[in-house]
Every structure is written in structure tokens, then in C-alpha cells.
Amino acid sequence: MNETIVALATPLGRSGIGVIRLSGADALPIVRRLVRTDDFAPAPRAATLAKIFDLETGDLLDSVLITYFKAPHSFTGEDVVEISCHGSPVVLRQLIDFCLKLDARMAAAGEFSLRALAHGRMDLSQAEAIRDLIDAQTIASARQSVRQLRGELSHELQPLKDELLDVIVVLESTLEFVEDDLPEYQADGIRAKMLDLIDRLGWLAATFRAGKLLREGLKVALVGRPNVGKSSLFNALLGHDRAIVTEIAGTTRDQLHEKLVIDNIPVSLIDTAGLRETSDTVESIGVERARRAMADADLVVVLLDGSQPLTIEDREILDSTADLNRLIAVNKTDLVESPDLQLPAARVVRLSAKTGAGLDALEKAIIEPFHPQDVDQSGFLISDARHFDLLARSTTEIESSLALFNQKMSEEIVLIGLHNAIRYLGQITGETTTEDMLTRIFSTFCIGK
Ligand SMILES: Nc1nc2c(ncn2[C@@H]2O[C@H](COP(=O)(O)OP(=O)(O)OP(=O)(O)O)[C@@H](O)[C@H]2O)c(=O)[nH]1
Ligand SMILES: [Mg+2]
Predict the structure, then answer these.
(1) pLDDT tens for each residue of 287-313
(2) What is the DSSP letter of 205?
(3) CATH assignment of 5-107, among 3.30.1360.120, 3.40.50.720, 3.10.450.50, 1.10.760.10
């Protein structure tokens, strides 16, 4: 923590501007050496034009804009300097090298955010929100991260923690001062509070279904026998010719993955090799992969060719996917539908990958089973599995404490679960998070954050 850290804050590669960030007590002294001006004193929170020179030769390296954030009014709470250079990878690397020579240390993943946490500039859920905002795949998911970054999760949790603490205090004081049992009216009050807590924690945890969907989205696999038009549909949904389409059965061999967004939900779409018995080595590997993709997907779209009667292969695929979360789609509606097309008794979507007819209906049908109607999506959503897990654990602890309380167990025993519950809630915002938990969480950040 005493060391001054440095990292590239913008992506690697050529760009208009590249920003290098320094944090720590030596940030400004290091910059003074870079600009070769001992009394360089940029006004805090203002952009200052400066020239940076080669440490040894004195050659001009770049003209830059320097922004100084004086401690504690900075992202990390330490002295921070941001140097905006021209986005030349060689200049940026050279500049970082100079900083390292001047005794800055390369920042570890998430170290800027970790320092912000350590200096009380934000809590853990807010630091995680920065990571999630940067990683967001859709604007809806980014908006949720911004809400968390603004402290909404901590805000939702605080009254719950206060209420839990109330219960704990009452039980503890009973332990210390009262010889007899808790009077019945007080016991009822405690029971009601515990039930209320279980209820409210449950509501918050229930938003995870929608939150996870917005953040991680769905894996959807297109499967079917060769030539039904999987790759054509894949391309039609993406809006460009990504996969090779031919009239030859067995065209697709490898799996193709692409992302699209349907109604704010990121969908990872997988085109697979047509399923059939084959002696071709390459194709049979593709078929094996297609089966794996099927098992792994949140939803399997089984595609059929509506212009032909079902084949044995079609029937096999329909049988083997019957227990999966699947959607049956009949393709090639631009052709005359086969009079012998015998579809199973299930909901089907009819479409033409060629003309685009029915694609909207297919998109709707893909996300429909996942849209949690019971959750108000305009509210704050739990989107992090870590938070969800801690809420669930906390609820379980309170439930078991309530059961023990109802069995008239001693306060001491009832309190154990309640203390665990409050510790779990504290881990969401980081108050009760251990050192190695933090290390694990921040290792999912990238350098420069
Ligand atoms: N008329 C018509 N033809 C289509 C339609 N969709 C696909 N086709 C044709 O069907 C043939 C096979 O299409 P693909 O998209 O390559 O089929 P696939 O299911 O990916 O086949 P494999 O990769 O071999 O498993 C091509 O000749 C397409 O032009 C459609 O909606 N209408
Ligand atoms: Mg194909």
C-alpha cells in the first residue's frame, strides 16, 4: 500500500489517446521527473498541458495532458495522476517503463479499486459494480451496474442489517440482564422481525433470476439434421453472412458462436454441425461437439425442414431433445409445406431463414420462457452470483435461528445463526470480508482498474 502503482488505464493498442494512471504518494514526484520540472505543480482536477522527456537522453517523448487528483479527493483516495498521451503503444510502453524506473510498481489486477476500497472511497459491492459496468454486454446490464456503483445495493441492505442488529441486541441484552425467559410480547416482536427479514431477503434474492439473465444472458444452440437451414438461420438472426451455407449436407463441421441481443438479453448463439451418422472423421467430431453444445445450452432450437416429411434423423433429434429446454422451429416456409410433415404435439414456430419471415416470432419465443414476469425489472436487481449466494446463506441462518427460537432454545444458541447472517450480509459490502476473499474477488478485475 505504500508503493506507488502505475498501469495503462486504456486498452492496449493504437488509439487517439492512451491514459496512464499513477496512484500513491510518489505519483507527483515521479511526474516531476518525467516533465523535468522540479516545481511542477499542476492544479488539482484540471488538465495541464506538459511535455514528457526521455529520462536519459532528454529527447521529447510526447506532449501530454496531466490531471492531478490530490489525496483524498481521488478515485483511490491517494494522490493520483492521469497522463493522457497520444495513443501510441510504443510511447505508452516507454512511459510506463520510465515510471517503473522511477520506482513505481506495476499495478496488480484491480489494485486501484482495491485501494479505493481500503481508503473507504467505496464499498466492495461498488468496486464490483465497476468491473461489471466495464464487462457489461448490453446497455440494460450496464445500467444495473451503474445503480450498484451508486450504492443502491448497500442502500437496500442497510435497513435489513439494522433490523437484524436490533434483534441481536435484544437477544444479547436478555442474555446479560434477565434471569427469566423473554416476556411473550417481546418474543412475538422478535419472531415477527425474523420473519420479516426472511421475507425481504427472499425478495431481494429473487431478483437474481432477472439480474443474471440481463448480465450473463442465454446460450442458445441451433440443432437439426444436415441441410435444414441452421446456418442460414444463424446468419439471418445475426444479420450477416457469418456461417457458410451450401446445399451440400454436412457443410458445418465446427461450432460457431456469435453474440446477439434480444430484448436487452445477451444471447450467445451457437450454430452446430448437422446431426447424423457419418463415417467422415471431421464431421463426426463436429456431430459430437453439437451434442455437447446441446447438453450445455440454456435452450435448444430444433430446426426442421418444413418442405419435407420428417426423416428418421429428425425424429431421433426430437426424441433426444424431448427432456431439454427446447423450441421446435420449422424452416423454409417460403416453400410449399410437405403434406406429410407430422409435428409432435408441442409449440412450434414457423419461419423462413431465406425470406426472414417469422424471425421476430422466433426471437420472442427464444426469450419468452426466461423472462421472469414476477420481477419488476425497473427496480434494482441482484446480478452477482456471489451476492446471491450470501443472501441465500444469510436467509438460511435466520430461518434456522427462528426455528430454534420457536423451540425455546436459549438465546445463546439462537444468536449463533443471527451472527452468521449479519456476517454474510457484511461480506456483500465488504465489511466482514477476509483478506483472501478480497484477493480472489479482485483477481477477476483487469489491470488498470
Ligand atoms: N427455400 C429455402 N431454402 C433454405 C432456407 N434456409 C436454408 N435454405 C437452403 O437449405 C440449404 C442448406 O442450408 P444450410 O443453412 O447450409 O443448412 P444447415 O442446416 O446449416 O446444414 P449443415 O451445415 O450441413 O448441417 C441451402 O441450400 C440453403 O440455401 C429457407 O428458409 N428457404
Ligand atoms: Mg450449417
Answers:
(1) 899 999 999 999 999 999 999 999 999
(2) H
(3) 3.30.1360.120
